[in-house]
Amino acid sequence: MVSSTKRVRLGRTGVEVSSISVGTWAHGGPNVAGGTSVGWGGHDDGDAQDALLYAFEHGLDHWDTADVYGNGHAETLIGELWDRVPREKVFLASKVGWDPGPHGHYYHPTYMRRQVERSLRNLKTDVIDLHYLHHCDFGPDDRHFEPALEQLRAFQAEGKIRFIGLSDWSPARMMRFIDRVDPDVVQPYRNVQDDTWESSGLAAWVREHDIGAAFFSPLKHGLLLGKYERPTRFEEGDFRRNVPGFEDPAVIEQMKQARDALIGHFAGHPQPVLHGVVGALLTGCPTACVLLGMRNRRQAEAACQVGEALSSADAEWVKSRYQPES
Ligand SMILES: NC(=O)c1ccc[n+]([C@@H]2O[C@H](COP(=O)([O-])OP(=O)(O)OC[C@H]3O[C@@H](n4cnc5c(N)ncnc54)[C@H](OP(=O)(O)O)[C@@H]3O)[C@@H](O)[C@H]2O)c1
User: Fold this and answer.
1) What pLDDT, in 10s, does the model give residues 34-72?
2) Which residue, 20, 90, 79, 87, is CA-closest to 294?
3) Which residues have any ligand 1 atom within 6 Å of their CB?
């Protein structure tokens, strides 16, 4: 295996993974749940598996998926690859919690068990290396929190999962539960426009407890690359139709300006924009990796060319390019 990206230790797990890790949400394809678009348009199974194979061959050995990505489809695509990729060489992460199920709340223990067993079957594996509570909405008075955590710990005791993870779009919401979960790895939303990871106290907690972190949506689903020439409306089933920036002419213009600035600043780097927006997240975070969505071989090739942390000065400069204009 050729290792072309940096390695990071996911804190006290002691596990080393590539600083650029592979996100597979888009591999689930278009999807609508509860009337809301929650998937990705423009998906192709062959392209997605090509991306995974290229990524593995070039050292990206931490793959992130979830039971709900295409209702198990993204997991199934991974499970089909074990004749070409040695299972034990991939650090495999999945999640439970966003499938509403029939019990009136997401984290019903019986339904969690059904979902985790389905994930194991889809992924064609006996054990999932890291399993997350996918979000921190535990119902009125957090009444479903303790049973959900207990269930996750039961999976661990049964050998179905190795490490426990905690995720949410809001780092502040994660902070309400982090002491009680004491996770091995956290998975917060983070990109160069949003640093609630620091302001919420989550970054400090991660440092103090020496746990791993995996930042999700580092490109804000592609928007931060400045690759959109004009405002874009996505098709039904593609969650990006719910993200206002894609349709906002002023945002699209700012992203193009930021792109051009990064191309100038990191001239000479083969992926100046990707290097800037992703490398800024790795600065000062020695136990963190970035979960980069890659849906085809071309994107996996680009991903394999980045993964170095920027200097503090460069990281601040990059973030300043992306701040909303006042
Ligand atoms: N825990 C959670 O609640 C949660 C939530 C969201 C995501 N995640 C995880 O984090 C991962 C990444 O986040 P994300 O999927 O939101 O997206 P992202 O990493 O912010 O953006 C990925 C998208 O950007 C575009 N892209 C990537 N590389 C590119 C390149 N080199 N050139 C041009 N376009 C490129 C691709 O979309 P196009 O080709 O369509 O432009 C790709 O699907 C997910 O896959 C998932 O594993 C977790």
Assistant:
1) 899 999 999 999 999 999 999 999 999 999 999 999 999
2) 20
3) 23-26, 42, 64, 134, 167, 169, 187, 216-222, 225, 227, 274, 291-295, 299, 302
